[in-house]
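Mobilization protein, Salmonella newport. Tokens?
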Amino acid sequence: MDKSGLKILRKDLREVARGVQLAGKQLNEGRLYKMLDTMRTLTGNLNKLADKLNNIIEQKSSNV
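Tokens:
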């Protein structure tokens, strides 16, 4: 994987981290249904990131 692909992966990870911070803020404010929606969105995003990372690992292991 080239550096631009890793940059995209890092950017996506930062977006998820911001979402987790937002969910924590929503929890503190008592907006539980909004937090639930945020967490469901984050779950989907994390699954996509896991798939991307799995593809990177497979590419690197096949190149060895």
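The mean pLDDT is 91.
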